[in-house]
């Protein structure tokens, strides 16, 4: 007799059909090559639930609460955003937000230069007009700040 296998719908139909015609459980079990207890338990379940479908099982309990699950979803789909601020000892410059075109957080040298063009250059002109040419541009040693593309752009802008 098969072990640990579910009853096929055909077998379920055979059991119900033979049971309805008065065939004994032992005879049904022998006919379909299943254990007596399998046939008996199936008929009890059919009687109680009025269905031949397998009941949904709860499965392993989740270790996540609904809030944990939502946080995972948010973390997975959260768009990354970088920011860059510009300061002078007497003035605050614009705060620039940078997001890579495809929604990721890492930006490349070309995008960094675009952001500088849009934000730094106008602020720099304003500072030069107000305080003269004695301005120091400072950034960290991130790869995009030190790339050849960025250095060439800075040189062309006299930064």
Automatic annotation (TrEMBL):
Tc3 transposase DNA binding domain location: 5-43
**This protein's superkingdom?**
Eukaryota
Q: Which GO terms describe its molecular function?
A: DNA binding
Name-wise, this protein is 2812_t:CDS:1
* Species assigned in the record: Racocetra fulgida
